[in-house]
Amino acid sequence: MRFLSKFYIDGFILSILATVALASVFPARGTAADVVGVLTKIAIALLFLLYGTRLSPKEALAGLTHWRLHVVVLASTFVLFPLLGLAAHLLVPSVLTDDLYTGLLFLCLVPSTVQSSIAFTSIAKGNVPGAIVSATASNLLGVFVTPLLVILLMNTTGQASVDFSSIGDIVLQLLVPFFIGQLIRPKVHRWLSRYAEPTKLVDRGSILLVVYSAFSAGMVEGIWHMLSPWRILALAGVCCVLLALVIAVTMLIGRVFGFSRADRIVIVFCGSKKSLATGLPMATVLFASQPVGLIVLPLMMFHQIQLITCAALAQRWAKQAEEPDAAVAR
Description:
Layout: H1 2-5, H2 11-25, H3 30-54, H4 57-65, H5 67-87, H6 98-107, H7 115-123, H8 128-153, H9 165-194, H10 197-221, H11 229-256, H12 261-271, H13 276-286, H14 292-322
Helix pairs in contact: 2-10, 2-14, 3-9, 3-10, 4-8, 5-6, 5-8, 5-11, 5-12, 6-14, 7-8, 7-10, 7-12, 7-14, 8-9, 8-12, 10-14, 11-12, 11-14, 13-14
């Protein structure tokens, strides 16, 4: 890492790119995909267990009561994104096909990610308790809000329904490990503070597993071969512009409303992301009789771009936080 830093190359970004390359050449299929899925769930549960051990009950309570922060994040996820998605209809048919636009609008309606938003917030030295509450609230509300927005803003031929098991998954995989971490915190907090490297390994490892799992799914589905290279490049460009606009707006809102540096990091990471894990199952239900592979392609592409972009931002802000004069995230 020190050698790479001399050339301004971040090792974590290279790890993500290497993971994408690995998934492109050796995607997880069949039993291997099941194993990767289980490992990813274990890593995420361990991640939230460690978050619970690192946060004092006072800090966790502060995260619950910071309502201004959560309102801004939810507004970015379920108001700003949908408005930008509707505006993107101007790109049809010159840049996007009808199916790709349907997918782009759908990506704008799904909730924020949980694990990667919180992991990046932790890496960047942001408000982790606030990120936990904001990201979890976005996912819980998204189970109901996303299908409602799809019905209101899109024409779907399938019967829209809500999978209530998603709530149980969030509780069991995220909240239960977090509260267990809170319970065992008095016994392990000092040890974890002394040995911080295992926590960093879980932070970054969980993200790499998510990247590998998501990109493997795309390769197995063969969705990259359904479009011409021009359409794929155009879609990538649209996703990059969409992410850049949202990040710029969330940064501006954080400053205008006087949020602290730690809170602005939460607003950017939780407010600019979209959940592939939540979006894919919903798309399967909502677009049962339509080309689901093409419709979810924008979400899958945006997911990869957001991970790489936010990883770079997290590393940059983490370095700024370590500097004596680092008062704000630029």
